Amino acid sequence: MKHYIKLLFNDRFRKVFFLFLYSGLQFWWLGKIKKFISTEASNRRYKELYQEQAVKFTNTAIELQGLLIKLGQFFSSRVDILPKEYTDELSKLQDAVQPVDAKLIRIRMETELGTSIDNVFSEFSEQAIAAASLGQVHKARLKNGQEVAVKVLRPGIEEIIAIDLQTLRIIIAVLKRFTKFAQSVDLDDVNQEFHETINDELDYVKEGKSAEQFQANFADEPRIYVPKIYWDYTTEKLLVLEYIDGVKITDLYAVKEFNIASDLAETIFSSYLKQVLVHGFFHADPHPGNLLVTKEGTLVFIDFGMMGYVQKNMKESMVKLVTAVFKRDAGAVVEALDHVGFLRPNADKNVLIKSIKILLNNVFGDMENNVKNIDLNELAIEVRELMYSQPFQIPARTTFLGKALITLAGICRGLDENFDAIKVSTPYISELLPGMEGSPGNDSGSNSNRAFLFDQAKTIALDVIAIPEKLNRMIDGLETGELRFHPSKTFEQNMLEHQSEIASRVIRTIITAGVGVIGAILYNGDAQQLGSILMVVSGFTGLGLFFGRSSNKQGRRKRPRFHP
Predict the structure, then answer these.
(1) Which of 58, 124, 127 is nearest to 96 (CA)?
(2) Element (H or E) spanning 242, and its range?
(3) 24: nearest Cα among 49, 42, 48
(4) Of 343, 514, 543, 552, which one has the greatest count of Cβ atoms within 10 A?
(5) Which residues, in sequence order, are CB contacts of 163 under 8 Å at separation 6+?
(6) Which residues contact 14 (CB under 8 A, 6 or more apart)?
(7) H-type helices in 65-101, by residue range?
(8) 119 pLDDT exceeds 90?
(9) 3-state class of 298 per DSSP?
(10) Per-residue pLDDT tens digits for 550-559
């Protein structure tokens, strides 16, 4: 208890905690009053509130820096948790970090090196060439003449992170205790993933080892390069690595001047397929600042603080998912997503299958004719809407994979508007199973591949053989009444709401007509004034019913297409 009381006197804690508390109270109040307003007005107010809160969080994060920046960047990829208004605004935090004063950086470096900077470097630029939420990078030159990039952890960031992590833990405890948010989102899982990611980024020794592992994975690929790590000067808070003179991969003018844009798109895309499907170890933060291109056309990966892992069972599930998508088998897609852990426990699979069918038909309808006709922007919109409107969750360890692949698709299409992802993907998908058992092309890999194909063929054959028996059971069940068709829970709920709305409207119409009739009788009698008032009230009520019906029709037409 004393610890929490002490936190209350911390200005940073109070700002962050009450920011979340106030946001929660806004949602609570809107939830109380939405029953008194139309559905369309309620939806509009929620969107306005999302936008208002996202802007407020972004401004607070820019003010306080530290872990709030990283938290915003993290949640900008959680389209399964937050609506578009939040994620779009939070994405602005990617470039919202100001560098720390060079004097403080010098003190930190000399503490880590155990000596003066001048004893290690012949040159050191006090102007940061890159700044992030946890550290920043300066250019320097070693005594032997080698140009290096020096990555330094921000002074005092450890204390800030400690406070922010405690604040986040308290906020999650409040959400679990007083809201229903935890029923649809595994908050402990999200917190654990975020906590582990931050700890990894605070350890530059681990980052250096990740860089060397990544370099070893691509040792036979001359088009990909990883800067050398200088371990003699590297500590947990200081990383010294080879400086690479290159341009950002999104510097299209320079890249196209090198006349390598098309080859570069294929190189980066195929490298990620190999990272995910073969190595199971991938660079989880491929934003333009972490991907450089040399004049020779070499793709350089830098910043290995955020790395992702894909386990063997996840690879197998990915194969099943991809197969189901290309077969447009919505049921198999849903089962594969459930197996991987992308569905929440309360997911209505029947409704979800219908939604997946809509997605597949809308986006991949003309795949057989021309793969290039697929609109990636339309695909992103469809997937985003589906993710947020249906009971999806992004399992731990896969959040950054999805974010990386989305970023990657945008970069490749920017480099080459005719980029054919399917053509590039084909050989790497075929190498998936060999890569799981050993290096691609070895005997054990070939055996594994054949075994996998045999298992798939056996499963399909057994399913085909079982079809007549399943049909007989279904027909018998229908005849005896043991088998009945039940609509989905969502369909039932919508039907009950619609019936309730009709009944309520009928009752109000009868009452309105009755008031009008009574008013007319009184007007023709001795109470003309009262009769006039009742007829006016009846008229306005009738107009309200009419326009309310029109408003509800518009609201139904504007309902998200993934809500049946």
Answers:
(1) 58
(2) strand 238-242
(3) 49
(4) 343
(5) 7, 10, 12, 13
(6) 8
(7) 67-75, 84-90
(8) yes
(9) coil
(10) 445 444 443 3
Q: Per-residue pLDDT tens for 81-93?
A: 677 788 788 877 7
Which CA distances in Å does 477 have to 80, 469, 473, 494? 39, 12, 6, 28
Range of weakest confidence among 54-68, 179-193, 332-346, 368-382: 368-382
Amino acid at residue number 543? L
Q: What tokens appear for 207 in the block?
A: 């980052």
- Rounded CA gap, 113 and 136, in Å? 17
Q: For residue 238, what are the β-bridge partners? A: 152, 235
Per the CB < 8 A criterion, the answer to whether 312 and 321 are in contact is: no
Q: Are 49 and 26 in contact (CB under 8 A)?
A: yes
pLDDT interval class at 367 (50, 70, 90)? very low
pLDDT band with cut points at 50, 70 and 90 for residue 455: low
Structure tokens at 192: 């654990």
Among 168, 74, 203, 38, which Cα is nearest to 552's? Answer: 38
Kindly calculate the radius of gyration of the chain based on its CA atoms and give it in whole angstroms: 30
Backbone phi, psi, residue 379, to 5°: -60, -45
Residue 109: count of CB within 10 angstroms of its CB: 26
Q: Give the pair of three-digit tokens for residue 316.
A: 């197998």
Measure the CA dihedral 22/161/128/231, to 10°: -160
Place of tokens 């001047």: 257
Backbone angles phi, psi at 494, to 5 degrees: -60, -40
Q: Which of 402, 493, 563 is nearest to 80 (CA)?
A: 402
Instruction: Kindly tell me the burial class for residue 106, based on how many C-beta atoms sit within 10 Å of its own C-beta (0-12, 13-18, 19 or more).
Output: middle
Tokens read off for 289: 């600042």
Rounded distance, CA 264 to CA 172, Å? 43
Q: Which residues sit opposite 242 in a β-bridge?
A: 148
Phi, psi of 40 (to 5 degrees): -65, -45
Q: What is the 3-state secondary structure (H, E, C) of 163-202?
A: HHHHHHHHHHHHHHHHCCHHHHCCHHHHHHHHHHHHHHHC
Residue environment code for 18-30, b if the CB has 16+ CB neighbours within 10 A, otherwise e = ebbeebbeeeeee
CB 46 within 8 A of CB 560: no
Residue 123 DSSP SS3: strand
Using CA atoms of 341, 347, 351, 357 in order, give the dihedral in degrees to the nearest 10.
-10
Spell out the SS3 assignment of 243-287: CCCCEECCCHHHHHHCCCHHHHHHHHHHHHHHHHHHHCEEECCCC
Among 192, 104, 105, 561, which Cα is nearest to 396's? Answer: 192
Q: Is 308 exposed, middle or buried (0-12, 13-18, 19+ CB in 10 A)?
A: buried
